[in-house]
Amino acid sequence: MRKFYITSPIYYVNAPPHLGHVYTNVVADVLARYHRLKGYDVFFLTGTDEHGAKVARSAHKAGKEPKAFVDELAAQFQEAARTFHISYTDFIRTSDQGKHWPGAQKLWKQLDDAQDLYKASYKGLYCVGHEAFVTDKDLKNGRCLEHDIEPEVIEEENYFFRLSKYVSKIKEAILADTLNIKPPARRNEVLAMLEGGVEDVSFSRPSKDIPWGIPVPGDDTQTMYVWCDALSNYISALGYGRTNDENFRKYWPCDVHVIGKDILRFHAVIWPGMLLSAGLPFPKSIFIHGHILSGGKKMSKTLGNVIDPFQLQQEYGTDAVRNFVISEIPSFEDGDITIERFREIYTARFSNGIGNLVSRIATMIERFFNGEIKKPDQALLDNLPLKITDAACHVLGEEKTEESFYSSVQAIIHTEERKYHQALEDFNLNRAAQSAWLLLRHCDWYIQEYQPFKLVKEDKNKGEAVLWNAATLLLAGAWFLRPMIPETAEKIFEIFNVGSGGELLSWNEITGKSIQPLFPRLDLDT
Predict the structure, then answer these.
(1) What sequence ranges are listed for the domain Methionyl-tRNA synthetase anticodon-binding (predicted)?
(2) What string of DSSP letters covers 50-110?
(3) SS3 402
(4) Nearest Cα to 469, choosing from 503, 444, 435, 495?
(5) 90-93 and 180-182 as β-strands: parallel, antiparallel, unpaired?
């Protein structure tokens, strides 16, 4: 089997999980599920980043020891993954001394053996929010642009990593797509960083100031800084540094790191430099998505625009949340969510959309064909074209053009199938979702156009063929949606008795019976 190793970032545990964490995990999960469906041997890693000054301070503020504090929050991140059906293979925690620390310590030693670590005094501006040193260009009116706090002036002796030594090699790899960065705008952003000059980076902190972390091998006066502590999770989880490193030898290099744009430099500049120093291969791809905004602004308790993903899940269901972040948030840019927009999409896509179509088609199969229809002769199906008329364009939300056409149901499905696969190979999840929902809009229009509930009384064979085509469009849409809204897709396959979906268009008979609506309609007064 071909392998596919995908990672989410590891999430910092100074606060409970929020919608941004859910978004990134769902994006990675869709890609993991998609590759499993294609027959790949998938290893999907997620986890938590549990060391550092911010965690220690948050623990102290909560009146807890750091270990108890991170245990509680890590459990919340694991529960969030279960709630949103994140099908991870492993969950790594950087506080795990048996699983993670050996890999981080081995990587440190590899960099040291390459003579890429050295001690030096450093004075700089340290942002606790970033857990990183910043420069004046990262500030506005003396405050961090992202966290709106003044950085601390810190002067101390640390270990440094010779990142500047590897700038040209990193640039060469990006230009050659050996290190593939998507989308192109982010690739250009990284190249600009490299062109602008890259300095060596602080790689440790004094253990007297930051005791909550991994001790530097051979120097217990220093604690590993975030780079070697956190970034090494991608290989430590596979067994790097441990006796049993079979998974590391099997799955590395990573096929894709899924990250948010705020940690681009860490993953596209510092991490490749560390890998070069250690003599390890680059990840094949880094996929950078944007952020979710609320009403056009970054979510903030002060602004009152924070949207709780767990409340959405309780009210509308897991798949409704998964659908929104995949189909309504652009894959490569920032996207916006409001409760009003979420409810609108839920009603259009779920209550009035896929849920209504499932109920109508299943009921017609039961009522007119005793609960089962079989694939009609191909000649009959071919004589029932998709006629892209003015009315159809209105339903499909498309403009009528000179390319408006007559086509078979199978042809339109195969056209969208090609677009769907290409979109997912390009990590364009938003575009892939469009193909699925387009087929469902075709299904809705097809029923309106042919009215099988009337046609079946005039010509039962033709009525069955129309109903077969409608069900085929619905099932093909569900087939596309399997990685995105897996629970709903599985329910649809069960209702129509086509197994787990199988191969696209592989079904030869479809059953159906009246069911309760999959998605309840909303009370518009609330």
Answers:
(1) 411-498
(2) --SHHHHHHHHHTTS-HHHHHHHHHHHHHHHHHHTT---SEEEETT-TTTTHHHHHHHHHH
(3) coil
(4) 444
(5) unpaired
Q: What are the backbone dihedrals phi and psi of residue 285, each rounded to the nearest 5 degrees, phi first?
A: -145, 150
Return d(Cα 227, Cα 306) in angstroms, integer.
Answer: 30
Q: Taking Cα atoms as reference points, which of 190, 10, 223 lies closest to residue 108?
A: 223
Higher-scoring residue by pLDDT: 189, 151: 189
Ordered alpha helix ranges (H), 214-295: 226-230, 233-236, 246-251, 264-265, 271-278
pTM over 0.90: yes
Integer angstrom CA distances of residue 386 from 84, 280, 408, 447: 36, 53, 6, 11
| pLDDT of res. 403 | 47
Q: Which CATH number fits domain 352-511: 3.40.30.10, 1.10.730.10, 3.40.50.2000, 1.10.3080.10?
A: 1.10.730.10
CA 71, CA 65: separation in Å to the nearest integer? Answer: 10
pLDDT of residue 156: 86
Count other C-beta atoms under 10 Å from residue 22's C-beta: 23
Q: Which residues of 247-259 are buried (b: 16+ CB within 10 A; e: fewer)?
A: bbeebbebbbbbb
Contact between 156 and 121 under an 8 Å Cβ cutoff? The reply is yes
Q: Write down the domain spans for the chain.
A: 352-511
* H-type alpha helices, 164-308: 167-175, 184-195, 226-230, 233-236, 246-251, 264-265, 271-278
Q: Is the dihedral of CA 361, 364, 370, 374 positive or negative?
A: negative
Mean pLDDT of all residues in 27-50: 97
Distance (Å, whole) CA 391 – CA 448: 10
d(CA 518, CA 350): 8
The reported pLDDT for the residue numbered 404 is: 45
